[in-house]
Amino acid sequence: xxxxxxxxxxxxxxxxxxxxxxxxxxxxxxxxxxxxxxxxxxxxxxxxxxxxxxxxxxxxxxxxxxxxxxxxxxxxxxxxxxxxxxxxxxxxxxxxxxxxxxxxxxxxxxxxxxxxxxxxxxxx
Length: 124
Prior knowledge:
The protein is rod-shaped. The protein has a three-stranded mixed sheet with strand order 1-5-4, with no helix packed on it. It has a two-stranded antiparallel sheet with strand order 2-3. Helices cover 31% and strands 22% of the residues. It is built from four helices and five strands; from the N terminus they run H-H-H-H-E-E-E-E-E. Strand 4 and strand 5 form a beta hairpin. It starts with a helix and ends in a 5-residue tail after the last strand. The mean pLDDT is 74. By secondary structure, the protein is α+β, with helices and mostly antiparallel strands. It folds into two domains: 2-55, no CATH class; 72-119, Cytochrome C Oxidase, Chain F (Sandwich).
């Protein structure tokens, strides 16, 4: 009985491979001996689209972290130092606080955005 079941399964596999054609046998095979399929090979639907987009360095669904803006943000102050709060991501609720001193360009320790203290003059 078991032998008949194995012969039937073998016949189905051979039939499926013949339908694929000789050029596509490797892609159509159920499992290659000893090979483990990759994540991309097993992914389907939206997950597969996201993996292909990540491989091509595109972000169609805005799932990757936003990149910091280029340049230095100038922070006005009437004193020689000021405390600055950086919200690193748009939807983040945590604020990273650090001191900014006159004459030095400093960066956020979390996201790397650069800040510079510039003197502010009152207009009276």
